[in-house]
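REQUEST ID: PR-0412
SUBMITTED BY: lab tech R.K.
PRIORITY: routine
TASK: structure prediction, single protein chain
INPUT:
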Amino acid sequence: MHQIGSALSLSILTAVAAAVSTGHEAADIAARSGAALTGSAVLLALLALAATLTLVVPTGTRPHERSL
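STATUS: complete
OUTPUT:
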């Protein structure tokens, strides 16, 4: 399932890159779709980092735990 989603996303990115590209050469389209994939990977990494920093709570700071 993951491979189907990746292939579908890559085909959509390639179609969008071909539509916006000034030159319709294969190298130009490949460069634009490669840049789009790199940008989406960076955004996904930033989202994962933000989620980790927000949701992971150190053990000593939970409100329901009291020191005896």
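NOTES: Residues 21 and 28 are 7 Å apart (CA to CA).
REVIEWED BY: pending
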